[in-house]
C-alpha cells in the first residue's frame, strides 16, 4: 500500500498541491519516498502539520523538509528526548518539526511555520509490502481526500529496482495499479557497517478459492445504537452474500451477554442465508456492555478450529486481559481478524487481534465505509488456509517469524545468517503445512547475489518490534527501533532548522492546540480541522464550512441564526448539500435493497420490485432471473463503481451462475444497457 499525508492548517489556503512516489522494489518489498508539495497561498505565516495513517505492514524510516533555505533531515530519538529537544528549539526561536506515533495507525508530523506565499516540500520514507496476484505487484493508493475536495491533486509513481514502472494520475479515490513482478522472491542484503546478512523469502498461497469456515463476532452493545447498528446490519447482509456455497458460518452477538445465531456452524445455502438475513434485519443495539471475552471463551470450549474469526467492536472491551489471552489460544488453530468501527474503538486491541491472530486488522472510522473494509478481509480469506506451518532453510541463522500457525495469503520470512554466504551460493527456503487434510510444500530456490543495504534488516526488525509491542516489551522494542532506524511507540523523529530563527516572543505567541494532548500527542500540535482523524474543536459555523467538518445542514443554519443573520452563501451551500444528501441516500437505499436480492447460488431475483422498468425487457422464453442477474451485474459496474470492493465478489458469483445459463441475445443486452443509462440515481 502506498500512503500520503493530509495537510492540517489553520489557514484554508494552505493545501497539498502534488504527491510524487519514488519506489525502490526488492521483490514485493518496497522502499517508498512520498514527496508532498505544500503551498501557503495566504497572506500569513501559519503552522502546518501532516497526519498520516499507515497499515500494519509498513514501517516509517524517516522524513525530511525542503524549504528555500535547504533540506533538513530528521533524526530518530527516544520519544522523551525528542520532545525535550523540540521544546528547546522552539524556545530558542528555531524552526523545528517532530514526528511521532499517535496510536497504532496514526502518525503526526508537526512541520512548524510556513512562510506566506511560499512552498515547502515534505518527504516521508517508509518500507512496505505489496500484494502479488498472478505475477504482478498490486500497488494500492488509499483515498485520503475529502469527497468535496476543491482542488485536484496530481500524483506520480516512479519505480526502480527489481521492477520498473512510471505512472501519472489524479487522486480521485482508492486506486489499484498493476505492475509486472520481475525477479525471484528470495533476496539477500549485507549491512556494510555490521556485516550482518539478512535473506528474505516470500511465499504465496497458491491454493484455489473454495468454501471456508467463518465466524463473525459482532458488537451489539448500547454504543452501537443508531448509525453503528445500521452499518452492522448492512455489512452483514453483504458479507453473507460474498460467501461461497458449502461454506460453514456462524454469527455471534455480544454485549454484556452473548448468543449464537445457530447452535453450531451451519452450511451456507439458500435456506441458511434466508434465515440469517431475516434475523440480521432485526438486530438492535440492546446487549448492554462490551464483554468480548465471553464468546471467545465459548469458542475455545467448543474446540473451534480451522476457522476465520472476524471480531468487530466500536469501543473498549471489558476484561481486555482475558480477551487477549483467548485470542492467543484461538490463534493456534484459527485465524482471527479485527474490525474497529468509529472513532472511539480500541485501536490497539484491533491491531493486536490481527497480529496475535495471524490475521488482518482494519479500522473503519467512518461507519459508511464498514462494508468496504470487511469486504477486503473477505476477499483475502477466500483462499484456503494452510495450517501448522514450518519454515526451513538450507543455511543456519535466526528465523523470523519462528512460528506461523496459519498462512492464508502471502507471507515474507527472514533469516539472519550465522554463516558466511558466498556469492552465487544456492539458497533454498521451504514452508510446509496442512491444507484440507493434505500436506502443502512451497519452495523458493536461488543462487543468491548479496546486495548492499539494510532494507531487509529493517523489515525483519519491524516484524520483531510489532511482536515486542504486543508483549509490552517496550525497552527491547526501543532498542531495535534505534538500531535499525524504524519509528515505534517509544521513539520519535525530530528535525531542527538552525539556519533560520524567529523572535522568541513571536514563537511564544503562536496559538497552540491545548486539546491535542488528550489524543496522546504533542501539546505543540496545531488545531486539527479535518474529518477522519480527530474530533473537530468548537468553532464558528463559517470555520466549519471552510475546513470540511460540516455537520448536518439544519444544525449549521440554526447555529447561524442564533449568532445573527445567516450568511447567504452558507444557506445556499447547506441547501445544496441537503439535496445532494437526499439523492445519495436514495441511491444508497436502492443499493442495499439490490444486494439483498442475491441468492446463495449467485442469481438475482425480485429486482423488478425495486426497479420496475426491468419488466419491460423481460420476455416469455427467458428466465426472468437470467435477465435480472445480467442487469444487476451491468448496473453495479455502471452506477455503483464507488462500491467496487464490496460487490466484486457478488458479481463473481453471479457470473459463475450465468455461465451455466442460456446466453442473452444482443438485442436484450442493448436494451438493458439503455435502461441503465436512463436511470437517474
CATH class of the largest domain: Mainly Beta
- In order across it, which strands form the biggest sheet? 6-5-10-3-2-13-14
The largest β sheet comes out as: 7 strands, mixed
- Report helical residue fraction: 25-40%
In DSSP terms (H or I, runs of 4 or more residues), the helix count works out at 16
Distance from N terminus to C terminus (CA atoms, Å) equals: 32 Å
Overall pLDDT confidence: 81
β content, as a range?
Answer: 25-35%
Based on CA inertia axes, which overall geometry fits? globular
Number of spatially distinct domains: 5
Spans of at least 5 consecutive residues whose pLDDT stays below 50 are 503-584
Rg to the nearest angstrom?
27 Å
**Level-2 CATH architecture of the largest domain:** Sandwich
CATH topology of the largest domain: Immunoglobulin-like
How many β-strands, per DSSP?
Answer: 32
Structural class, judged by helices and strands?
alpha+beta
Domain VWFA: 213-386
Domain VIT: 1-128
Protein name: von Willebrand factor type A domain containing protein
Pfam family, one: VIT
Amino acid at each position: 500500500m502506498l500512503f500520503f499525508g493530509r495537510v492540517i492548517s489553520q489557514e484554508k489556503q494552505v493545501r497539498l498541491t502534488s504527491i510524487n512516489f519514488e519506489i525502490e522494489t526488492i521483490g514485493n518489498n518496497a522502499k517508498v519516498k512520498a514527496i508532498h508539495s505544500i503551498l501557503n497561498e495566504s497572506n500569513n505565516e501559519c503552522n502546518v502539520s501532516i497526519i498520516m495513517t499507515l497499515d500494519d505492514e509498513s514501517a516509517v524510516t524517516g522524513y525530511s523538509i525542503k524549504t528555500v533555505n535547504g533540506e533538513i533531515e530528521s533524526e530518530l530519538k527516544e520519544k522523551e528526548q525528542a520532545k525535550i529537544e523540540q521544546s528547546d528549539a522552539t524556545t530558542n526561536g528555531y524552526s523545528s518539526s517532530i514526528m511521532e506515533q499517535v496510536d497504532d495507525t496514526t502518525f503526526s508530523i508537526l512541520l512548524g511555520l510556513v512562510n506566506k506565499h511560499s512552498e515547502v516540500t515534505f518527504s516521508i520514507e517508509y518500507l512496505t509490502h505489496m500484494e502479488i496476484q498472478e505475477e504482478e505487484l498490486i500497488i494500492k493508493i488509499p483515498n485520503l481526500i475529502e469527497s468535496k475536495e476543491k482542488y485536484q491533486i496530481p500524483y506520480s509513481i516512479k519505480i526502480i529496482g527489481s521492477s520498473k514502472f512510471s505512472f501519472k494520475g489524479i487522486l480521485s479515490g482508492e486506486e489499484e495499479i498493476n505492475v509486472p513482478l520481475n525477479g525471484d522472491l528470495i533476496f539477500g542484503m549485507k549491512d556494510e557497517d555490521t556485516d550482518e546478512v539478512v535473506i528474505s523469502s516470500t511465499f504465496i498461497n497458491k491454493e484455489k478459492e473454495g468454501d471456508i469456515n467463518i465466524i463473525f463476532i459482532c458488537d451489539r452493545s448500547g454504543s452501537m445504537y443508531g448509525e453503528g447498528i445500521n452499518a452492522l446490519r448492512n455489512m452483514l447482509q453483504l458479507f453473507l452474500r460474498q460467501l461461497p456455497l458449502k461454506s460453514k458460518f456462524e454469527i455471534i452477538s455480544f454485549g454484556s451477554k452473548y448468543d449464537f445465531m445457530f447452535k453450531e456452524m451451519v452450511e451456507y445455502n439458500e435456506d441458511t442465508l434466508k434465515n440469517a438475513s431475516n434475523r440480521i434485519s432485526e438486530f438492535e443495539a440492546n446487549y448492554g456492555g462490551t464483554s468480548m471475552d465471553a464468546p471467545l471463551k465459548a469458542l475455545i470450549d467448543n474446540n473451534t478450529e480451522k476457522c476465520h474469526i472476524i471480531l468487530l467492536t466500536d469501543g473498549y472491551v471489558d476484561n481486555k486481559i482475558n480477551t487477549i489471552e483467548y485470542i492467543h489460544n484461538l490463534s493456534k488453530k484459527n485465524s482471527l481478524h479485527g474490525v474497529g468501527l468509529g472513532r472511539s474503538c480500541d485501536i490497539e486491541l484491533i491491531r493486536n487481534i490481527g497480529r496475535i491472530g495471524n490475521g488482518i486488522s482494519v479500522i473503519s472510522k467512518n461507519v459508511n465505509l464498514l462494508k468496504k473494509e470487511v469486504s477486503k478481509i473477505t476477499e483475502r480469506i477466500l483462499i484456503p488456509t494452510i495450517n501448522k506451518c514450518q519454515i526451513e532453510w538450507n543455511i543456519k541463522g535466526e528465523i523470523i517469524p519462528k512460528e506461523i500457525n496459519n498462512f492464508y495469503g502471502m507471507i515474507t520470512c527472514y533469516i539472519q545468517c550465522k554463516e558466511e554466504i558466498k556469492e552465487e551460493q544456492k539458497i533454498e527456503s521451504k514452508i510446509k503445512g496442512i491444507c484440507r487434510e493434505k500436506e502443502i510444500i512451497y519452495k523458493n530456490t536461488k543462487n543468491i547475489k548479496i546486495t548492499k543495504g539494510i532494507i531487509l534488516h529493517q523489515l525483519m526488525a519491524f516484524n520483531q518490534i510489532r511482536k515486542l509491542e504486543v508483549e509490552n516489551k517496550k525497552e527491547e522494542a526501543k532498542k531495535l527501533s534505534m538500531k535499525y532506524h524504524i519509528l515505534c511507540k517509544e521513539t520519535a523523529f525530530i528535525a531542527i532548522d538552525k539556519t533560520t530563527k524567529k523572535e522568541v516572543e513571536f514563537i511564544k505567541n503562536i496559538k497552540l492546540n491545548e486539546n491535542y494532548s488528550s489524543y496522546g500527542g504533542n501539546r505543540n500540535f496545531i488545531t486539527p480541522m479535518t474529518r477522519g482523524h480527530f474530533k473537530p474543536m468548537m468553532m464558528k459555523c463559517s470555520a466549519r464550512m471552510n475546513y470540511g467538518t460540516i455537520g448536518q445542514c439544519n444544525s449549521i443554519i440554526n447555529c447561524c441564526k442564533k449568532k445573527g443573520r445567516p450568511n447567504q452563501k452558507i444557506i445556499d451551500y447547506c441547501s445544496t448539500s441537503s439535496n445532494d444528501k437526499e439523492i445519495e441516500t436514495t441511491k444508497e437505499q436502492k443499493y442495499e435493497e439490490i444486494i439483498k436480492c442475491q441468492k446463495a447460488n449467485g442469481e438475482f431475483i425480485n429486482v423488478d420490485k425495486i426497479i420496475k422498468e426491468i419488466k419491460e425487457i423481460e420476455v416469455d422464453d427467458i428466465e426472468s432471473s437470467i435477465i435480472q442477474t445480467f442487469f444487476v451485474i451491468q448496473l453495479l459496474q455502471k452506477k455503483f463503481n464507488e462500491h467496487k470492493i464490496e460487490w466484486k465478489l457478488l458479481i463473481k458469483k453471479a457470473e459463475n451462475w450465468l455461465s451455466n445459463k442460456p446466453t442473452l441475445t444482443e438485442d436484450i443486452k442493448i436494451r438493458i444497457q439503455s435502461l441503465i443509462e436512463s436511470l437517474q440515481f
